[in-house]
């Protein structure tokens, strides 16, 4: 009754569980490397479906207008719909599947707990314990996802020069990264950029750091800072 009363949430729960399943079979290619590549695409397509359903839930009345598009781009679900479309037809990159896998795992765990509560307050204690441990580490997981989002930017550039990526991919991914940086719901990308900057500045200001390395890092920090969007 709980599942039928929340059909859209249930559909997203199922698609997230399928995303976790496909992502796991890509990361751990138990069925062979050829099959792993197909699971990579399936995971991203399932994530695109979840993101589209979530975006529909957040903005139910579609309008073909600039205002609606601007509002949609503020939603995290729109960001990850774009993310899935960026990588779904690209060369499989393990690094790119982790945000999809971990976000799906976190959201699926939250809804699974609701399903267990609807069934009985004491049902499946072992599973409840695992879900509670996962939720307890949510902040660390979100920081890890943000790290992946940031370091995928240079990875897309490397893929371009190695012949495994398209010319447009780094530019589209840069747009995705600016959306994540400006996210209202998830500040971890901004936080990680700040923390990485502090760490790098601390290291390069040590007397043992060569001058040319210090200058290179400072100019890189300045360049990246100019690229960062303004956050309201």
TrEMBL record:
| Topology relative to the membrane | Multi-pass membrane protein
Q: Which family does it belong to?
A: Belongs to the PER33/POM33 family.
Lineage: superkingdom: Eukaryota
Protein name per Swiss-Prot or TrEMBL: TMM33 protein
Q: Where in the cell is it found?
A: Membrane
UniProt gene name: Tmem33
Transmembrane ranges, per UniProt, are 12-33, 80-106, 150-174
What GO biological process terms are annotated to this protein in UniProt?
Answer: endoplasmic reticulum tubular network organization; membrane organization
């Amino acid at each position: 009754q709980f599942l039928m009363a929340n059909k859209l949430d249930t559909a997203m729960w199922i698609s997230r569980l399928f995303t976790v399943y496909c992502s796991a079979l890509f990361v751990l290619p138990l069925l062979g490397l050829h099959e792993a590549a197909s699971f990579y695409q399936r995971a991203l397509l399932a994530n695109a479906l979840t993101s589209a359903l979530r975006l529909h839930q957040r903005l139910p009345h579609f309008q073909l207008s600039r205002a609606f598009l601007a509002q949609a781009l503020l939603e995290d679900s729109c960001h990850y719909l774009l993310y899935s479309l960026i990588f779904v037809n690209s060369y499989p990159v393990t690094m790119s599947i982790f945000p999809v896998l971990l976000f799906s795992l976190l959201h699926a765990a939250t809804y699974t707990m609701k399903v267990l509560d609807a069934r009985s307050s004491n049902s499946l204690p072992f599973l409840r314990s695992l879900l509670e441990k996962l939720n307890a580490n949510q902040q660390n997981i979100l920081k890890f996802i943000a790290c992946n989002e940031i370091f995928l930017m240079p990875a897309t550039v490397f893929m371009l020069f190695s012949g495994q990526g398209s010319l447009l991919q780094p530019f589209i991914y840069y747009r995705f990264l600016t959306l994540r940086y400006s996210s209202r719901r998830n500040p971890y990308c901004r936080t990680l950029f700040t923390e990485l900057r502090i760490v790098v500045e601390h290291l390069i200001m040590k007397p043992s750091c060569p001058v040319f390395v210090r200058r290179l890092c400072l100019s890189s920090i300045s360049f990246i800072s100019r690229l960062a969007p303004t956050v309201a």
